[in-house]
Design brief:
Helix content: 40-55%
Low-confidence stretches: 1-36, 488-497
Shape: globular
CATH architecture of the largest domain: Alpha/alpha barrel
Radius of gyration: 23 Å
Strand order of the largest sheet: 15-18-17-16
Mean pLDDT: 90
Amino acid sequence: MKRILFAFILILTSTFLSAHVIAPSLQGRAGGESSSGEPSLLLHRAIALTDATMQKSFVANSLHMYDTYDTATGQGAGTADVWPYTAAIEAHCSVLEALEQLRDEEPDLYAQHHERFVIRLRQLYDNLAYYAGTYLLNSYARVARWTIYGVHRAGTKGTAAVKGIENVYDDQMWICRELIRAYRLTGYDGYLKEATMLANYCIDGWDCCLDGAGNEYGGISWGPGYNSKHSCSNAPLIQPLVWLADIYRADDEPEDLRYYYIQPDGTRASVMRRHSDVYLEMARKIYAWQKEKLLNRTTGVYWDMCGAVQGEIKYVKVGRDTYRDHIDLNGPSGTAYTYNSGTMLAGAAELYRATAEAAYLDDLNALARSCFSRFTSSKRIDGIVYRLWPTDDVATSGFNTWFDNVLMRAYVDAAPYNTSPTPTALNSFRLNLNYGWEHHLRDGLLPIHLIDGWGDATVTKGFHQMAFASELAMLAVWQQRQAQPDAVPQLPADASVSPSATEGQFFDLQGRVATRPLRRGLYVLAGHKIQLQ
């Protein structure tokens, strides 16, 4: 009955994806500026930009996403891959998070937009199936059939090409991350189920082959059809894994996740384990592997990848079955993109929150400083110094706009633990976005050069617009948290206590009610940060 009712609601609300997608309260008001403070202003702009992008970059019925949109002709062109499509899901999650954060301050805004963003998020998820496909994978420790997401959109749901290089692990990780956020924001179990499957698929890509000392080589290749191992196919999984560990943790949590591994004699084996244990363990292992292999200790930020000594996938036959085998790597190389450091910054924040281990905090502080000094440049306009983050020459030549969004969100995650330079970094994003909005808004959209404007360019990508929308929403979340210092204190832990020795409402360091049962880590109780042992 619930499914029928929900389908009926979707039909009734399909006009959100038509030319009337922008809510009436935001039309004709320069993005719906609010007079109730900066967080509200940023949220109004995030909503307006998300709506404008849905109107211009998506086809209403099937949510086909265009690759590009021309502001001169008002026409979309091409078909976006699954990665840009995921950015639309991300923007909706960020707006919903901001609406929740500002609910008391903006009850009318919440009432007007929350439900329609929940519905449209579900529509985006349902149409994600155009990128889904099923195939049989011979991985390092097992052979299994998976239904995951390919790079390219198919003409019908569930028929996308996904074998070999047609799917990559980082796409699954970004989707996993946003579906966990969607689950937390809406409570819809389908999001959690899909996110769990995708996390397990990515863990299945971990190189568990053993070296001469009996240790796992580790690392996840770019995809099942590649041997190279990239920052982007490892670190994005850390944060979602810690989130999943939080969600599944329970006093009576069953050992119902089958974990596959390789024994010293080369035979493949499996054991039943608790989800929360596996996910936290894998988050730690992935973080350690990437730090060891891909941290540039000269610049303090992360390399792009380690290439493999050969391109062809190697297999080994064990008993009746054939498994993927290890291929050695070359040293680290490639461009230091902002997002590859951003995912490690977010990973350090989550692992520190979950474990209270000082090493993660040390890494977080060092990386936050290195990212700001390594990636930003300055430009003075009318006496104001703007800090600029990497940008492509034109919107069609790269993805730095979204890469920067990943790093910005990581600074939001790091905010409870880092006082320098996190506020400066986040304020630089805020100043740039507001300047672009007030000086260069065209057809309801922003140029990738927020300070310099469009120039001769007329073409943009919905991918970049959704990144900007997510940034605006998460900046609203951050600023609202800053206005409530007791909810997210910027102080060392006040005490180390046992959960059984405390009473009262616990919050995580993002201001959310903490999931029980509580495990060791950092929490907020009665306005103070405490460490549970």
